[in-house]
Amino acid sequence: MSAEDPGFFLQNQSTRIGYSWKVPVEHLDYGYIEKCKDVKYLEKILRVLRSGDEGIYPHLINFCESHLEKLDPTSRVLRKETPVATAASLPHNEWSQIVDGLKRWQEETKKTETLLKQQSMFDDLVKEDMPPMRGSNCSIPLSQTSVPKRNLSKHAVPRDYREWDKFDVEKECESIDGNSVKNDPAAVINTGHPKIKTKVDASLLTQQEKLLLSNRETDKGNEAFRAKDYEEAVAYYSRSLSIIPTLAAYNNRAQAEINLKQWHNAMRDCLRVLKLEPGNKKALLNRARVYNHMGNFQMAAEDLRMVLREEPQNAAATQLLSETEKKMKECPPEPHSKGKKILIQEVEEEDDNKNDPNAKQTACPVEPSQPVGGEESSAAPAEKGDMGNAQKKPHSRGDGGPHSEFNNSNQGHWRSKGGSSDKYKVTQESKEKVANGTGKRGSTASVPADQSSNSKETPVRGNAGGTVNLDAPCGALPPPLARLKNEGNLLFKNGQFADALEKYSQAIQGFTDSGIDSPEDLCILYSNRAACYLKDGNSQECVQDCTRALELQSFSLKPLLRRAMAYESMERYRQAYVDYKTVLQIDTSVQAAHDSVNRITRLLIEQDGPEWRDKLPNIPLVPLSAQQHRREEPPSAEVLKARAEKAAIDAERKAEVRFTALKQEGNDFVKKGQYSDALGKYTECLKLKPEECTIYTNRALCYLKLDRFTEAKQDCDAALKVEPSNKKAFYRRAMANKGLKDYLACSSDLQEVLQQDPNVQEAEKELEEVTVLLRQSLANANNSAAKPRTTVPITEVEGDEETAGVPTSESSHRGEDVIVNLQPTNACQFGQALNAARSSRNTAACADLLASTAPEMLPNFLSTQLDANNISFIIQALDYHLLEKDPNLVYQHLNNLHTTDRFSVVLMLLEKNERHHLTQLFEHLSAVQSTEFTKNDVQNLANKYI
Amino acid sequence: MKRSRVRRTRRRRSYIGRFFCYFYKNNSTVLHIVSQTANMSSPLAKPQIIAHLQKSLNYTVFDTKWIPCSAKFVCMGNFPRGTGVMQIYEVEHGDAQLIKEVEKPKPIKCGTFGATSLQQRHIATGDFEGNLNIWNLEMPEVPVYTVKAHKEIVNSIDAVGGLGIGDGAPEIVTGSRDGTVKVWDPRQKDSPVANMEPMEGETKRDCWTVAFGHAFNDQDRCVCAGYDNGDIKLFDLRNMSLRWETNIKNGVCCVEFDRKDISMNKLVATSLEGKFHVFDMRTQHPTKGFASVSEKANKSTIWQVRHLPQNRDIFMTAGGAGNLHLWKYEYPAQRSKKGSDNKDVGVAGSVSLLQTATLSTQPIASLDWSPDKQGLCVCSGFDQSVRVLIVTKLNVV
Questions:
Q1: DSSP type of residue A85
Q2: Residue A160: in which H helix or E strand, if any?
């Protein structure tokens, strides 16, 4: 072995011939190489071997290479010059795939390119938002600006005696410390993400550009994610989403947020994806992770099972599920309160978004403001928690089974049409479906079961709908057996299959012992026991029981279906196929059977080849009597009832769809600002569903925007009736009340909002404003009522100014291009403002201007602007607007106005109707009672004008 | 019930597995050949570099660039008679077809699309006389913008702010033999917006390469320049200062940031003697600067390095012996740590070789990944030919 000098080694590398003596010939040997563990030495041996100085031994070289690769697969010596691969060096199909991909890309790019060109024809516009240029010709020195740091104050001058008085030891020490620290700049870390904008303004871009850009941002996000820089990843995903929202970006962002432990954000993203695509596996997996971390193991497990149902070999889901289940066992139930809290918050968030339809997210076609899906999907599982059965075994197929089926198993065929398809369907959205399904079906099931007890077809078949009543009579069974059966049903429902099995076995035993002749009941018992076996995975027994049941009653649906499932699980696909086919002959609507037949067909083709059908046992022909017999029967009362019910459910569903559509349209209109259109949509919505709180609040918003405050208030009241704590409704009612000038009610509503959520800033702002208004209105009321001589509180003036401010801001918002400078500080500004107002004949603006001008400054400001037109304009403004608000100010203005230079001259130039305005103003003014001036004062003043 | 479902699916999977084995066996002869030529332990797992097209040219080609959002690329070079040339080729039906050829008075050394919009797609080029020109490739007769940028040849050009890459103004940076690096804004005539030149009395070094980076918002932007003496300088355009410099002992042939429009993440610098350095640009220590890892591809010069536009951690180097190396950078567990002086120091990751291929005996002088199609790249060498390559399985590494 060698412990060689690296210098030698390097030399050897460069000029390997001539140094071969460093490797003794005996080392070029299989045995030695095999034992050698020194990578460097092996590399050297390999070089010697390759050089061919000691002869060429291809096998030994190969051996040495493979041995070296085992020790160090990344060794540089193993890198070889390889000619570039060509099409021929790839498997044919792989190459054709590549070529196809290339061809497709070429075609696509051609299209995008022509599109881009077309666009560039039209908008060759200079982008205005382009950032400015850098300064011109700035020079950057190539070397570090190491300006020789000569310490200028080398010689410390002794301090002046007076300075010593002010000497602060602490400060001096600090500055010395500070100096020493400052010498070294801190490390620069480019984490960067706080500076990354999370929004991209893509409004100017074309669709192609947006797509490219959003993909690139997603790529950046992915890279940051891989580099474990999750914050940056989130920023880039957000950028991508702000350009074009895609499911993938939402999913990835959720994942990054999970890594950042931002559970709520992650949850929101998951819900968004699930709203767009209900069965999205990644989103489900992510949501499960979030649930898991929030301690809501139940929900997590459900999501995971759903994923596994879709993709059983998903390793991540399996692992997480086992973890979750372990945790679930460790800290059993009661996770609901927690879970619920989250859900409510979530809903609020959504609501918040929706509330703000003006917040423009134009680039976002997937508006987060449709909480329908989200609310439902999140609400459904919460509901489900109440149903013990669904909760315990949510993954088992046909949860609804025990309810309906056990109550009226055989005779209940007519219902299986509606029921079974729902029951056995295992679809993506099954979670909600199953939950809702069980809920609805559970409740509806008991009703027809009750009815069926007095139908003639099934004489006295008992119903065990009420699970409490264990002694309910059961068909022709004697009470003890009926009790056993009911107990069995109950246990089955609770998921205790083994116990249920025992009960059924006892019942069957008792049945045969007592020698009753009622094949139907025995058939049901066998069928039920078969169900237990099936659940327990005992397919053998299940098949036996089903066969027995079928002997008693051939072509009954349930046993056939169960036997088929059992066969399938035993991988006896042919038998299963036959049974499923038989089931379908009896009732073609059993979805589970359809699915299974398809699946098995595929398997059989794989197994047996194209002649698979020949190997099948005969499929029994189902006699017509058994085939869909409920159709041939005259529609009995309960059938009609059931149909009606079904129709009702259908209608309900349709209404639901229509409702969401309408609501969406309404929301869209609101976003566009077309409130009256939105109003119509919402009203239609309410016709369909008068109990929907959000619609009321939304419509209230429209009314508010249309200034129809009374209606808005009514809607809010209605919303609050439905949901007494809806803060949106409170807030909007407050706004309506404000519009109706009922400030008291308004402030109480606002307080209510703030009590519920102290973070609502608008509410706080409104409340402040309204309190001022309230105080003012109270003061006004007091004034007019009794005490005309009380001093005017200062607040009133403030209030006045504020109210005076509001209309102007409104008028300027309305887009009249008058920009009135409300705080003129010199004559020029005042003149400009006045002219602006006058040119648009906006007396209100002028009034505001005057209101904000101090009366004593008026002559100064006006001096250059004084002409007849202006005077009459000011008079009009004072008369129409300012007089009712603040007569004192009007008086003062008038009192000052006539002191302006040249006033008397201008006065003479006034025309007749203008003079008429003037007299009117004084008449009005004298009619006003005020503390600051009397009628006489007004009269005196009038004399100066007229 | 559930158990049985699982069993069933497992069974189904095994069918697939068997099918796959069958397929595998059938192709094993082919695969064997591949594995011999490419010398790989698991040929299916690694990316492959495949020569798709090759065109021989009648001029020396210095640079090739894909036209964004198209299947076309531009070749720039030098006719033997001493004039410049630009050719546009389109990849179509398994062939590269010449669409347009324009001759220019001066040989063109380098070009970039980085400062143009997707709609316009104007190319900015630097030539042997030191001119910076911007051409509309639809009408390439007259330049859209022209300026005498340098006294001598423009060795390298890069741009940012266009194509949606990088916020902020569109800017072009040129590096020249006259030792200066200048930043241009196409909206400003005649004078650069920033000029990085040696002070009076300093020796002028030949600037071989320039690159933009750090353009993740409106203000921040960096230019990195490499010089013939091994100097690498990083200029901060926001503060208009030299932010960092180092020397890698050998002439710097090419520098590139892994992405221009993110907060500086990595910088790769290749050198004359076959080594390249990867700097982790996230953490800058006041004295130690940036952490780096170096790797030697070959004994010959590495002329170019280009990061995959779709994945910043994969890059290809083009070497002087006509070979290509595909690398992947792996991040360390912690990208920064506290140094002995209690300041953050960056930690470099590692670089692993994914694939190599030898294209010719002459150096590969330029390389460009297609920004639109992952794995497609064009390269040109001094053997007067241009090649379109396909690199497979980049999405799985």
A1: B
A2: none
How far is residue A489's CA from residue A482's CA, in Å, rounded to a whole number? 10
Best of B54, B89, B91, B118 to disrupt the A interface (most A CBs within 10 Å) is B118
Substitution target from B263, B279, B282, B397 for chain A, most A beta carbons within 10 A: B263
User: B187 is written with which tokens?
Assistant: 């909206």
The token pair at B77 is 């070079």
Supply φ then ψ for residue B59, to 5 degrees. Answer: -150, 170
Contact B127, B106 (CB under 8 A): yes
Is the CB of residue A682 less than 8 Å from the CB of residue A668?
Answer: no
pLDDT band per the 50, 70, 90 thresholds, residue A916: confident
When pLDDT is cut at 50, 70 and 90, the band that residue B73 belongs to is very high
Whether B49 sits inside 8 A of A84 (CB atoms) is: yes
> How long, in residues, is chain A?
946
- Per-position DSSP letters for A517-544, written without gaps between them: --HHHHHHHHHHHHHHHHHHT-HHHHHH
Q: Are the Cβ atoms of A219 and B265 closer than 8 angstroms?
A: no
Secondary-structure breakdown of chain B: helix, strand, coil percentages, each rounded to the nearest 5: 10, 50, 40
> How many CB pairs below 8 Å do chains A and B form together?
266
Write down the pLDDT at residue B305. 92
Interface touch B9/A184, C-beta < 8 Å: no
What is the total residue count of chain B?
397
CB contact (8 A) between residue B324 and residue A84? yes
Which of B8, B195, B286 lies at the smallest CB-CB distance from A187? B286
User: Residue B85 class from Cβ within 10 Å (0-12 exposed, 13-18 middle, 19+ buried)?
Assistant: buried
The pLDDT score that the predictor gives to residue A822 is 58
Pairing of strands B344-346, B311-319: unpaired
**Residue contact A138–B194, C-beta within 8 A:** yes
Q: Do residues B76 and B110 touch, judged by C-beta distance below 8 A?
A: yes
| pTM as predicted | 0.50
| 3-state SS, one letter per residue, for A376-440 | HHHHHHHHHCCCHHHHHCCCCCCCCHHHHHHHCCCCCHHHHHHHHHHHHCCCCCHHHHHHHHHHH
Q: Is B28 left (phi over 0), alpha (psi -120 to 50) or beta?
A: alpha
What's the rounded mean pLDDT across residues B262-273?
89
Is the CB of residue A208 less than 8 Å away from at least one CB of chain B?
A: yes
DSSP labels, B325-358: EEEEEE--S-SEEE-TTSSEEE---EEEEEEEEE
- Minimal CA separation from A406 to chain B, in Å: 19
Q: What is the ipTM of this complex?
A: 0.77
Selection from B232, B229, B235 nearest residue B206 by Cα: B229
Q: And the tokens for A411? A: 């005779």
Cβ-contact A252, A223 below 8 angstroms: no
- B245: chain A residues, CB-CB within 8 Å: 143-144
Pairing of strands B194-197, B207-213: unpaired
**CA-nearest residue of chain B to A94?**
B392
The mean pLDDT value for A477-483 works out to 74
For an interface test with A, give the residue of B1, B66, B113 to mutate (most A CBs within 10 A). B1
B14 burial level (CB within 10 Å; 0-12, 13-18, 19+): exposed
Reference A487, options A463, A470, A474, A473; nearest CA is: A470
A346-394 pLDDT per residue, tens: 333 333 333 333 433 333 333 333 333 333 333 333 333 344 343 333 3
Three-state DSSP at A558 gives helix
* Mean pLDDT, rounded, for A795-800: 40
Q: Closest chain B residue to A218 measured between Cα atoms? A: B310
User: Do the Cβ atoms of A105 and B372 come within 8 Å?
Assistant: yes
Name the packing angle between helices A371-384 and A336-355 (round to 10°). 170
Which residues pair with residue B254 across a beta bridge?
B270
